[in-house]
Write a structure and sequence with these properties.
alpha+beta; 8 strands
Length: 212
């Protein structure tokens, strides 16, 4: 059995993840929040109260319908939390970051303009061009266990906003998940390289001990 628990001491939950949980259904969200807020009754009651408000809003149906065709890209790595977190930092080092919280396992980029890239890719599919487009990347690293071995799961969420005209304003759209999966692939490669380097170092250390 594979068990994950949230790696957080301050019990802060990001609104993007809360809304994503809401899109998965009310019962599932209550289960996730109950586990997240274990030991803190006041926080649990407050979050479930907020959840009830969200569930009654029309936006809940929007996220519920969106989740039918959307699954947040994620991957499980056979590495501990610290190794995976460092790999995430290596992959995202050239990205303008808004925040990085190792204790909570959450990294966020700033809003990045991608109007030209989006219009270029849409031109091949015949879609209408947009006036403006921007996105931000949110990466969540969670520590878990497979048996007695520590593993980590990395989830990548790309929030893409587009503005087609002044009247419609900014609207969130579903991405093709290419960038998200590319980030996961790069994290996997960084971890693989680090493991190979560690094996080489251990082998050299063993050979040095044998010579002595």
């Amino acid at each position: 059995m594979f068990l994950f628990h949230v790696y957080s001491h301050d019990k802060l939950i990001d609104i993007n993840w809360l809304l994503f949980f809401v899109s998965q259904g009310y019962n599932r969200t209550v289960q996730c929040l109950a586990a997240f807020c274990e030991g803190n009754i006041l926080l649990k009651v407050s979050l479930i109260f907020c959840l009830s408000i969200l569930a009654s809003c029309s936006s809940y149906e929007q996220f519920k319908n969106l989740s039918k065709d959307f699954e947040m890209p994620g991957k499980v790595f056979r590495s501990d939390f610290n190794e995976t977190w460092q790999a995430v930092l290596v992959v995202m080092r050239d990205t303008d970051l808004e925040s990085k919280n190792q204790e909570a396992g959450i990294l966020k980029s700033r809003w990045i303009d991608n109007t030209l890239e989006l219009n270029f890719s849409d031109s091949f599919g015949g879609a209408d061009s947009v006036k403006s487009a921007k996105y931000k990347i949110i990466i969540n690293v969670i520590k878990g266990y497979r048996g007695i071995r520590e593993v980590t799961k990395v989830s990548v969420y790309k929030r893409q906003l587009v503005e087609r005209d002044f009247l419609q304003g900014w609207r969130e759209v579903v991405t093709d998940q290419i960038q998200e999966n590319t980030i996961l692939y790069r994290i996997e490669r960084v971890l693989a390289i680090e493991k190979q380097l560690k094996k080489i170092e251990d082998l050299r250390a063993q050979e040095a001990e044998e010579e002595i």
